[in-house]
Design goal:
Blueprint (H helix, E strand, L loop, with lengths): L18 H12 L3 H8 L3 E5 H18 L3 E6 L6 H9 L3 E4 L2 H9 L7 E3 L6 H9 L3 E4 L2 H14 L3 E6 L26 H13 L3 E7 L10 H19 L6 E3 L11 H16 L21 H6 L19 H9 L1 E2 L4 E2 H7 L4 E4 L3 H4 L3 E13 L2 E6 L8 H4 L6 E3 L9 E6 L8 E9 L8 E5 L20 E5 L5 E5 L4 H5 L6
Parallel strand pairs: 1-18, 2-3, 2-11, 3-4, 4-5, 5-6, 6-7, 7-8, 8-11, 13-15
Antiparallel strand pairs: 1-12, 9-10, 12-13, 12-17, 14-17, 15-16, 18-19
Helix pairs in contact: 3-12, 6-7
Amino acid sequence: MNRDGNTPKTRQGSSSSRPEERLVRAIQEQLPPVENVLRKWGSPVHVLFTEEVARSAAMYESVLQSEYGHGWVAFAAKSNPCLGAIRTAAALGLGVDAVSEYELRAALDAGVDRTRMVCNGNAKSDRYVRTAVENRLLIAIDGSDELDVVEATAERLGSTARVLLRVSGLPVAGFTAADQTTASVWTKFGLSSQDISPLLDRIRDARRLGFEGFSAHIGTQLGVVDPYELLLRRYRQLIHEAHSKGLETRILDMGGGFPVSFVSQGWWEAFQDRLARQIHSNCGDDPVTWDHLPMGYADLGPKELRNEPPNGRRWTGKRYWSATPGAEMLRSALQRIDPDTGRPWNDVLRMLGGPALVVEPGRSLMGPAGITMARAMTVKRVAGQLVVSLDMGINNHGTNLITPDIFPVSVWPVSETDRPVEAFLAGRLCFSGDMISKVKVPLNRLPERGDPVILFLTGAYGADHFASHSCGFPLPAKLAVTRDGSIEVWRRPGVYEDVFVLPEPT
């Protein structure tokens, strides 16, 4: 979507078109009229187009094979935790990265290739560990006490547990939002460098533990390649250390975090400039963020910003545009030249024995494939700024409770006579933090009550993160549109009885 809120015309089927432009075509060509969907399934409703998931998955497979040739793609189920999404991944030949016994059960029920499953999580239950060991699945070990449980379980079952050691303690702070950094020094996940060496010794000497390699997940929405290079450098050190202890590294799991470009480069640069000017002028009279939120400039004072013009290098936190989104970030990491050897990292990995490379995209697989539709309820001004309230809340679109999100939005239908405006988007929960967009977003026009409003690129997390019955609202429907235009119900719309009626006694 352009800065003015309109959707530019693009060549049909163009691979270079932005993801929301492809979604507009999908809405027009594969979905029943938007008004009919809202009337049948209620407001809000989440819709995912499986053809777009297949497009992203094919790009990852292509890059992995062309740039390295050994490994697989595992769908991060936490990004869209439902049986429909996991079945879609299985049909595409993807593995699954599970973080709970429930995601794991869904993957097994969906028939996902068990050799392509990875069991993650920082507090695995006994049932989760037992299922993983029984099925000889890869287990990413998160701590020494967890290794105790895994080893004891394998001993009871007379089996061998296949383990990866999950790596943390990397200097990756600032590359994404603090609450979404999962491999830095301050994180509840994984093992720091000093923890790994004794565990390697222990695994080598254990009867029921089979060492497979290392895993990590740096964070999410990583817009630049630097943190991936930091991870590869750490992996090289660990491979050498494991080798010195007589252990062969067969698998390296790079995790996910591959970015989605939610906005165009021009919009992103203009937004950063406007936000910096807002800070320069002591909040100014035309704020671009809700209540003058500094976002990625929170660590920089007005004097610092004034002395050096803002650019992507000075932004810390979550990035909403990347020159290498999705699978292109994987390509960039593998092609990056290692300064120590003068070779690209894909060659370095081959020199290290060519371990299988696992990548676990979630947001970049599902995000660009999904939309959220809701009805506009009210329009008013707050502190002089336009605010559009929608028939939904952050319990239906919960990523904004973690960190402010930016995404394209349209009032539907779009018309050539629309008059573009900018506005903040509010939810309808009785909670002041219930803001669907704390960034002023461009709209093609101001809606009237009842008009459909479409949020684009919301196929990951938005439908499920913090989904709850806040203020008594039931969960909204989640639908998938297949290539032939048929609609699958991935989650039925909730009803009053789901929230307020007690179950019958058993």
